[in-house]
Known about the structure:
10 strands
Amino acid sequence: MLLEFKEQNHNFYYYGPLFVGSNYEYCHVIYDTMSSITSVNLENARGKQSRSTYDFRTSETAEAVYVVSYDSEGDEFEQIKSGTVQYGEHIVLSGKKYMDQMCLI
């Protein structure tokens, strides 16, 4: 596996390949050494920093991460959890959370 190393405003980023989903779609991701999650852009994401052919809608192994919420009347319902990840000062990814299988090589 070949990783790219980049410095931007004294922040260091490690980029490299990752294969995600039941079809092992190619992604070029930031390896965040300080996080327990891996962020993958969708194939057609706007303003994306990294390349990807992954789409959770075509993966047979993708599962949404749900969170319990309450409406104005106090009734419980589930919705897909949203999240934001920031890498250094300039790269911010936002979106819905899904879990899927990954392969490094």
